[in-house]
């Protein structure tokens, strides 16, 4: 098994019994995980190896947050303590954590009714309101997000001059790629298209971000498990940090409710946004400002292409067609998107 965990060293540090089976869970982009069956039950074993978030202090902060949120009734899967009471185990310089196994499935926005979209918005609002209660007010160090999925520095928006240079560099990499394939053709088309959009809209660069607070940091369908019709657990809290809350709400909607050809399902966005505003105490103007910043972020963001061409990492390739089409559609339907989030 590739990247097999050191169960012989790990399991004695827990009251988890002896291993019966250990199967990799393949959906994570930044960390590794396994479904672990032992003589005492089923567990999720996580190897934190993303260098930006895998310090014991950062992982411990995530674990404390989820324990406190669980007491408020937020559906999470808090890490289990080891024999010494700690939830982070370090073996060979690597950090591991053991969680209860939550049986469930992921659901994208196309599989949700409007009522379930309301419930999703209320859930994220409850996360933000709950984190405001249980987390300290001081802001942690914000890691660099260059070339990786997630969100940029909340204090600054992308400079189009930097984006134009990146587009030129990526176009050169596309031209050099041999043998050329359909992904190269789509990448070239979207890069040229995006450059034209930025040339037309460069004067719409947004100011610094709005009100900040603690956020999940990576709220999307693969980090939410459903049992039947109800959310069972929000997982993968690696990006827990202080950032503009309303932007996380917009960013999550742009992932949950994007259709395969690129448009957002605005009826579902409206239901989701109403519930989020009500639960989180956000105003329509805060959501509209967040829509503008996330739209600009999407216009300037090429992390999927950077993974493909700079890292030779193809795991995000299936997301690229819809994500790249969304930026074009969003620009054309900008007013309608703002209205959906503010109505």
Describe the structure using short key phrases.
Aminoglycoside 3'-phosphotransferase, Chain: A, domain 2; 11 helices; alpha+beta; Phosphorylase Kinase, domain 1; 9 strands; five-stranded antiparallel beta sheet; 2 domains; 343 residues
Molecular structure report:
The structure is a single chain. This protein has 343 residues and is an alpha+beta fold. It folds into 2 domains: 7-100, Phosphorylase Kinase, domain 1 (2-Layer Sandwich), CATH 3.30.200.20; 109-155 and 203-342, Aminoglycoside phosphotransferase (APH), C-terminal lobe (Aminoglycoside 3'-phosphotransferase, Chain: A, domain 2, Alpha-Beta Complex). It has 11 helices and 9 strands. The strands form 3 sheets. A 5-stranded antiparallel sheet has the order 1-2-3-5-4. The chain has a two-stranded antiparallel ribbon with strand order 6-9. A two-stranded antiparallel sheet has the order 7-8. A hairpin with a 2-residue loop joins β4 (89-91) and β5 (94-100). α7 packs across α11 (334-342). It is globular. The termini are far apart. Mean pLDDT is 92; it is low at 138-148.
Using only C-alpha atoms, the radius of gyration works out to 21 Å
**How many beta-strand runs?**
9
CATH architecture descriptor name of the largest domain: Alpha-Beta Complex
What is the straight-line distance between the termini?
A: 51 Å
Q: Helix/strand/pairing class, anyone?
A: alpha+beta
**Low-pLDDT residue intervals, each spanning 5 or more residues:** 138-148
Q: What topology, given as strand order, has the largest sheet?
A: 1-2-3-5-4
CATH superfamily heading of the largest domain: Aminoglycoside phosphotransferase (APH), C-terminal lobe
Task: Note the main sheet.
Answer: 5 strands, antiparallel
Percent range for helical residues? Answer: 40-55%
- CATH top level of the largest domain is Alpha Beta
Per the CATH scheme, the topology name of the largest domain is Aminoglycoside 3'-phosphotransferase, Chain: A, domain 2
